[in-house]
Amino acid sequence: MDIFLQQLINGLTLGSIYALVALGYTMVYGILGLINFAHGEVVMIGALSSLTVIRLLADSGLPGPVVVLIGLLAAALVCMALGFTIERVAYRPLRNAPRLAPLITAIGVSIVLQQLAMLTWGRSYHSVPPLLPAATHEVLGATFTEVQVIIVAVAAITMAGLMMLVNRTKLGRAMRATAENPAIAGLMGVDANRIIGLTFVIGSALAALAGVLVSANYGIAHYHMGFILGLKAFTAAVLGGIGNLAGAMVGGILLGVIEALGAGYIGDLTGGVLGSHYQDVFAFFVLIVVLIFRPSGLMGEKLAERA
Amino acid sequence: MAALLDVLNLEVRYGGIAAVKGISFAVEQGEMVCLIGANGAGKTTTLKALARMLPSKGEMRYRGDRLDRLPGHAPISRGLALVPEGRGVFSRLTVAENLAMGAYHRPRHESGEVAADLDRIHELLPRLKERRSQLAGTLSGGEQQMLAIGRALMGRPQLLLLDEPSMGLAPLMVQKVFEVVRAVAAQGVTILLVEQNAKLALEVCSRGYVMESGDITLADKADVLAADPRVRAAYLGE
Fold this sequence. Notes:
The complex is a heterodimer.
Chain A: H1 2-32, H2 39-57, H3 64-91, H4 100-121, E1 126-127, E2 136-139, E3 142-145, H5 146-168, H6 170-180, H7 182-187, H8 192-218, E4 220-221, H9 225-240, H10 245-269, H11 279-293
Antiparallel strand pairs in A: 1-4, 2-3
Chain B: E1 5-14, E2 17-27, E3 32-37, H1 43-50, E4 57-62, E5 65-66, E6 80-83, H2 95-102, H3 111-124, H4 126-130, H5 141-153, E7 159-163, H6 171-186, E8 190-195, H7 198-204, E9 207-212, E10 215-221, H8 222-227, H9 229-235
Parallel strand pairs in B: 3-8, 3-9, 6-7, 7-8
Antiparallel strand pairs in B: 1-2, 1-4, 4-5, 9-10
């Protein structure tokens, strides 16, 4: 039982991060019908640029959480600028091209960003200074750290804020209208380019946050961390129903929990043949199952609604 | 005095095919004008070009502005609204949100007037008030048409372009929609109406243009057109 609870806590932590990244995928898909495979790299750039700032300020005498917050703000600015630029340079010229063209471009952007990060930050693994409160607590035989609490809380607050933005504000209404029918939204005076640009900027800010949180969780960051994280978040978005914001959140958390529980029990279930390093298998197993049995995802809409 | 809308040699092409072949027409302030013609005559294309949904050649002057030089999202802020063919309501937004989208371009300091406009539209179209928190996709066709018109009115247009408001509606609903259109015109909104239901269009409008495969072939007062044997034979089923 304690393994179960322990892995549930770990899965929730990981899942909150997946959810933040999945939102970036699903927002862009909702408005452009594009899978932005470069999104995982934006997370990675967020993690590494925050790390650079955090290291610069580590000896400044500022309290740890303040340093992390400054690092997060810096990373958010970098990623927002990056997301805006990617859309402008790579995707906008292909807006009316066949769907395969922007998809391949996204993979290209992903490779470019990864190589640029390698040139900037090197190939080595960087350890992230433990600046957030790391004390551990015990509940019913399972332990959790304060970092984990912070991750889940920050992710939850951010996602609530995003839902408010999308469902309650004028900008959010315009985003939903543009996602449904850009030409008609244009008739209402909505500049689709501006809305699409903003969607990338918001998604990239979430990616920066996810980057900071994931490196705080593992205490490590490196130039290819975005690839697998991006794929898993994409899986989470598909699991929830791509294009659906609530689905991305549910899918992210669910995927985190499935992965953690799977990793926790796989050793026992296979008599020790497979160990917890098979953790990554579960995400892709889930992806395959979803694609076979429910391609529209848990909360995805039926296609008939689009008619 | 220049007309509210002046179109000169408007040409629209889809690839190599000219859908509108250099037409010229004008709409005066306060008029109700219709564009009638068969399927594929270029009526919808003309309206789309006016609303800057399609690239076009030729001059389109609206209150002295060159419409053809505006970006696609600008016409509504100059007071030109289009109720598109097939209504184009945002089916995943609520009725209230659809109406709010109609006022998207209006600045924040107008919010008092926007609220007053909403009250007026609720009065004109009480169904929309009843169903304000319902998703627009769940409305009937007639209600969606009302919503599309209400949404356009939320932008407080001086010129309203209506594309086939009767399409796919039961006769009773068509009558209702046209009552609303008349009421809107009575409030001083200039209307350019595209209709396949030529009889109805010529009844409510003061002037009309007949389009045939991309050209305007006839232009006259509505009653003259309605009496014209060519129009009667081709569009009034006689």
